[in-house]
Design goal:
Elements (H helix, E strand, L loop, with lengths): L19 H8 L4 H12 L3 H6 L17 H20 L10 H12 L7 H9 L16 H5 L3 E4 L3 H13 L3 E4 L8 H4 L31 H14 L6 E2 L3 E8 L4 E8 L2 E7 L1 E4 L21 E4 L13 E5 L3 H13 L2 E5 L6 E3 L9 H9 L3 H9 L2 H4 L20 H18 L3 H7 L11 E3 L2 H5 L5 E4 L3 E5 L2 E4 L4 E3 L2 E4 L13 E3 L6 H5 L17 E3 L6 E2 L5 H21 L4 E4 L1 H15 L23 E2 L3 H7 L8 E4 L15
Parallel strand pairs: 1-2, 1-7, 2-3, 4-18, 7-19, 8-17, 9-10, 9-17, 10-13, 11-12, 20-22
Antiparallel strand pairs: 4-5, 5-6, 14-15, 15-16, 21-23
Helix pairs in contact: 1-4, 2-4, 2-13, 8-19
């Protein structure tokens, strides 16, 4: 029944044949902390970690130095080279697997602090020394007929849909993935605008169960990510389960038979499909938000949202206007500045940016060699980039009610973060006080989504062909935009870098639950879901990247999606093994979780009223973000708690091929 993909183990590295000189040269170019961890695997001793002395928390997302002084780094690298050569000369024996005490010491060196022991099994799971710890397993023998009676439809073939499909394939549960696009990848299939790239290090912006990916850059551009998802869909055996260019219009729960009636639309027209469980993996950042600006239809040029960029659209020699100044603007503006005859950026409010020193850095040949050859090097590189030390104590993002230092910050730690961000931004903007005043926010950092870049966005405004407009886009006419002061800005192309309808969860699908109420009616303006996954009155409906699961201070969507997929797969396992037809979250559990979430969110900068953001609903309440450390979410989502659900058994089961459109 299992269809598990082979996960490379700690010993699955290429034979070490490098010469002494080649090892010496490579070691000098490697990240220090993963190098030291690899030495522990080679020698079985943590002595080299003690020689490194106390380390500090990473200063940025790809900082692998531990802030170890430069002269000491030289000594440690020499010792590491010696250990690698000795391991080579011994015939590359099986690497040492650290015991609990050694792992604790390694994690402390990794994070620059002693973590709560709760993190040890989580980080060990992420490291994956024993293979895929999240792989699906039945607890007992099950009848295939009972398994076939639980066909699943997953909506979306982005990263969440692919991991969900993989876990269902492992379980042998019949499933189909419905995808509106013509290929997998979700947002990384759709977003092809110039400069588009991920702002999470690729080594941890990837699945734990496929570890042989070679990343050419630390932060991958969209073509690399698009290729990654397409390759995975094939390698994991999911392609035959995906129905591309097919949309879900409506899903209605039938309480008598405990199944969902789903209406699909494709080129062949509409059809009805019946499934036992429905999984939404549609994400949040997939429906472009176009601001309502007077006279848009009168404009005779090209109007395009960044998520709808056409590959044949060129800004070369054109007059271009960009509306927006957040994440996508940071990426597209430097590219357009190189091409356009003139570029004007309309900024409603400035955004805080971490000017990252390695944002465009390529992964070196030495690093690729180490990841392929040195036991543990690639795994610890990934683990370090998660920055676990930040997980439980994001002090710079917590509101201090006693803070009296001014409206530019919400705490002393937040103010210190503001100073660091300001220094990096000023260095990129240049010595122009007027431009600095326009581009550096006055509201506290981390009230809105933190952005990442190499400073190219700020440097673009030093060019003669680039203008920053802070007077607003008042209205369009046939040839451009008139700003709030009545100044006309000519344009051939207007680019909306204005984000997405992030809080319209599950839209435009119409999801009708057990009581006949649509889920948008159930939620009104305050979408919530227990663990972001389940909602009362909607049995056998599971959400991925649902309300309250956007990660605000650590981790990334791959981590959350793997947690959610395990939870959902284990819910289906429970239903099959205990002959349950429907599970529905208890309203009391939903209410308690929502109350605890609201209380936790109120402590964070996102709830501060100094600036709006897409995190908040119309009433100013934070909806999108999770206030929980990753360790909490990981523990809570290992499997559903049966005490939190109402269970139902009915006589009318879905018949055994029961696929009725399910692959």
């Amino acid at each position: 029944m299992s269809a598990t993909f082979a996960v490379p183990g700690l010993s699955d590295v290429a034979p070490l044949t490098a010469s002494d000189d080649e090892i010496d040269a490579a070691v000098g170019d490697l990240g220090l902390l993963p190098l030291l961890m690899s030495v522990v695997h080679l020698t079985g001793s943590t002595e080299i970690l003690r020689a490194a002395g106390p380390t500090l928390r990473p200063q940025y997302s790809t900082d692998l130095s531990g802030s170890v002084p430069a002269d000491l780094q030289v000594e440690l690298r020499a010792k590491a080279a010696q250990a690698i050569k000795a391991w080579r000369d011994a015939g590359c024996p099986a690497p040492h697997l650290p015991d609990t005490i050694q792992l604790r010491e390694m994690i402390a060196t990794l994070t620059g602090k002693s973590l709560d022991p709760r993190y040890e099994p989580l980080i060990a799971e992420e490291l994956g020394f024993g293979g895929d710890a999240r792989a699906f397993q039945w607890d007992k023998l099950v009848d295939q007929t009972a398994v076939n009676a639980k066909p699943v439809m997953t909506v979306g073939a982005g990263l969440s849909g692919l991991v969900m499909g993989y876990r269902l394939k492992e379980a042998g549960i019949p499933f189909t993935i419905v995808e509106k696009n013509s290929g997998p990848g979700g947002t990384w299939f759709e977003n092809r605008f110039p400069g588009a790239r991920v702002d999470v290090p690729s080594h941890c912006y990837s699945f734990t169960f496929v570890r042989d990916q070679t990343w050419p850059e630390l932060f991958s551009p969209w073509p690399v990510l698009r290729s990654y998802f397409a390759d995975l869909a094939d390698r994991l055996g999911l392609t035959s389960h995906i129905r591309y260019e097919t949309e879900v219009l409506r899903a209605v729960y039938d309480d008598e038979s405990a199944h969902w009636n789903v209406t699909l639309r494709s080129a062949g027209g509409e059809e009805q499909v019946r499934v036992a469980a429905l999984v939404s993996a549609v994400g949040q950042l997939n429906r472009p938000l176009i601001p309502d600006i007077e006279g848009q239809d009168a404009f005779k040029g090209v109007r395009v949202h960044t998520a709808k960029w056409s590959e044949d659209l060129s800004a070369e020699g054109k007059k271009v206007l960009v509306i927006g100044s957040a994440a996508t603007a940071l990426q597209i503006v430097p590219e357009l500045a190189e091409q356009a005859a003139h570029l004007t950026v309309f900024q409603r409010s400035p955004t805080w940016v971490l000017v990252h020193p390695e944002y465009r850095r390529k992964v070196s040949d030495s690093e690729h060699w180490a990841m392929d050859t040195l036991p543990g090097y690639a795994r610890w590189t990934r683990a370090i980039m998660y920055n676990w030390a930040l997980d439980g104590s994001p002090d710079h993002m917590v509101i201090d009610p006693q803070w009296t230092g001014g409206p530019q910050a919400v705490s002393a730690a937040n103010d210190a973060a503001r100073e660091r961000l300001t220094q990096g931004m000023k260095a990129a903007i240049g010595d122009d006080p007027e431009l600095q005043a326009k581009l550096i926010p006055t509201y506290p950092p981390y009230v809105k989504r933190p952005n990442l870049g190499d400073g190219g966005y700020f440097r673009a405004f030093q060019r003669e062909n680039v203008t920053l407009c802070t007077d607003g886009a008042a209205r369009f006419d046939e040839t451009g935009i008139i700003d709030g002061k009545g100044v006309h800005h000519d344009a051939d192309i207007v680019v909306y870098a204005t984000g997405f309808k992030a809080l319209e969860y599950l839209a435009p699908m119409e999801i009708v639950g057990r009581t006949g109420k649509r889920i948008d009616q159930f939620w009104d303006d305050t979408p919530r879901a227990h663990l972001g996954i389940t909602v009362p009155e909607f049995p056998n409906l599971f959400l991925m990247y649902g309300p309250g699961t956007n990660l605000g201070f650590n981790g990334n969507l791959f981590f959350n999606s793997e947690c959610q997929a395990r939870y959902i797969a284990n819910a289906l396992k429970w239903m099959v093994q205990d002959d349950i037809d429907a599970i529905e979250l208890k309203p009391t559990v939903f209410a308690d979780y929502s109350a605890r979430m609201d209380a936790a969110l109120s402590r964070f900068t996102w709830s501060h009223d100094s600036a709006g953001s897409w995190y908040k609903n119309a009433a100013g309440k934070v909806i999108a973000n999770s206030p929980w450390p990753l360790i909490d979410y990981w523990e809570w989502t290992r499997a559903p708690d049966p005490q939190e659900f109402i269970t139902t058994r009915v006589s009318a089961h879905i018949d055994s091929p029961a696929t009725e459109g399910v692959a």
